[in-house]
Amino acid sequence: MEDSATEEKQGYHKIKQCCQRAKAEAINSMFRWYRQAQVCYAHLADVSENPQQPRVEFPKSKWFTRGWTLQELIAPGKVIFLAGPEWVEIGTKATLRDAISRATGIRPQVLDNAEEVFTASIAQRMSWASKRKTTRLEDIVY
Fold it and tell me: Would you call 94 helix, strand, or coil by DSSP?
């Protein structure tokens, strides 16, 4: 496949299309994978707060602006948030639900139950995604 004449070989188009389909299917399946997870760990490297201190940095974390973390947040039943270089546990999706809702605009009911995401309007779901950034242009679509 690394040969410069690969694109001219018989079957190249077929392999390329299969790879594109597999990539799209993997991306579309990620919600299901996260939904079936027992727990998802979210490391917020830019949050250094202690669990006993007010949650000032938590809602401002870059984690809440990354495109791929939206499904990591919504799909799993349990998300444990860890902060700073020591990976200190600062709470779970359940215990931090109200702060997460304020930071993301996602209704608490959706955070409590991933199935609720399908009852949210397309406009609501798009608004959640619109505040997030991706490094690759095609990732915005997903």
Answer: coil
- Give domain status of residue 33, yes or no: yes
Domain span at residue 93 reads 12-134
In a domain, 4, yes or no: no
Burial grade of 100 (CB within 10 A; 0-12, 13-18, 19 or more): buried
Phi, psi torsion values for 8, nearest 5 degrees: -90, -5
pLDDT in tens, 96-109: 999 999 988 888 98
Check pLDDT > 70 for residue 58.
Answer: yes
Residue 96 is assigned to a structural domain of this protein: yes
Quote the distance between the C-alpha of residue 95 and its chain's center: 19
70 lies in a domain? Answer: yes
Residue that has been written with the tokens 């798009």 in this structure: 126
Place of tokens 């809440």: 64
pTM: 0.72
| Total structural domains within the chain | 1
